[in-house]
């Protein structure tokens, strides 16, 4: 595939991704693609390889085998170009505790070489979209886990990326905050590509149209939300049947 944004309709591509640690395979031969305008759930039990796969897709971890592409850009060969169109919220993302959300996000925008005008406009947008107004000038180290999570979400959205990879974006949020983030993700999914890792099956029903499920490092399901289950109990039963190892 040509190494440019017009290489195809797929915005996220995992092509035979594998990660080995000695004899242990954290991820093995995971292949899928996600087109523009789709919100896709990335599910699996703890230790299934979700975060490892996401780190390989974003370039934070080199794969042992396979390729990752974002908007047609090969992440290994052209990581800077890929990062320009990618917003990533990692699990327990790093934050500078002595900074305020305002100073941290301004710094993040400056490191991305955003123009002063664009940066000011986007700071206003993420402060409002992520509900950071009341803590905008407080030290991040003094914020609750939920507010820190929202700062991480704001960082992922700051440069208006075409692709979002979000690892447990509602972790630590209260029910009202969860609702707000879900509404935001649904809105973003109208024009952007979103890969969303979550443990909350209700969240899948609320915001996702497609589900990719991994277990023990392998892809075991890739289909519509309805195919996994029309309601919560049916989805839970299908999830268990696909991820429970028969001894």
Description:
The protein has 247 residues and is an alpha/beta fold. Helices cover 36% and strands 26% of the residues. It is built from nine helices and ten strands. It has helices at residues 50-58, 79-84, 101-111, 116-129, 145-157, 175-188, 201-207, 225-228, 232-243, and strands spanning 10-21, 24-35, 39-43, 65-70, 73-74, 86-89, 163-167, 193-197, 210-215, 218-224. The strands form two sheets. A six-stranded mixed β-sheet has the order 6-7-8-3-9-10, sandwiched between helices. It has a four-stranded antiparallel β-sheet with strand order 2-1-4-5. Strand 1 (10-21) and strand 2 (24-35) form a beta hairpin. It is globular and about 50 Å long. Residues 1-8 have low confidence and may be disordered.
């Amino acid at each position: 595939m040509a190494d440019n944004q017009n290489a195809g309709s797929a915005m996220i591509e995992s092509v035979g991704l594998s990660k080995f640690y000695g004899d242990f395979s954290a991820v093995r031969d995971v292949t899928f693609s996600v087109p523009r305008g789709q919100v896709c759930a990335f599910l699996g039990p703890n230790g299934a390889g979700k975060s490892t796969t996401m780190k390989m897709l974003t370039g934070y971890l080199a794969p042992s085998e396979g390729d990752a592409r974002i908007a047609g850009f090969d992440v290994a060969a052209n990581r800077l170009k890929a990062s320009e169109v990618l917003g990533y919220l990692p699990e327990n993302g790093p934050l500078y505790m002595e900074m305020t959300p305002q100073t941290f996000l301004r710094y993040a925008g400056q490191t991305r070489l955003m123009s002063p005008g664009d940066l000011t406009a986007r700071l206003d947008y993420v402060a409002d979209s992520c509900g950071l107004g009341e803590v905008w000038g407080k030290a991040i180290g003094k914020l609750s886990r939920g507010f820190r999570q929202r700062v991480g979400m704001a960082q992922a959205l700051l440069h208006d990326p075409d692709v979002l990879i979000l690892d447990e974006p509602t972790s630590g949020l209260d029910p009202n905050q969860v609702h707000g983030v879900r509404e935001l993700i649904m809105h973003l999914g109208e024009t952007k590509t979103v890969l969303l890792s979550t443990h909350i099956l209700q969240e899948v029903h609320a915001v996702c149209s497609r589900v990719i499920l991994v277990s023990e490092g392998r892809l075991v399901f890739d289909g519509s939300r309805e195919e996994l289950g029309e309601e919560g109990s049916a989805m839970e039963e299908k999830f268990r049947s696909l991820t429970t190892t028969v001894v």
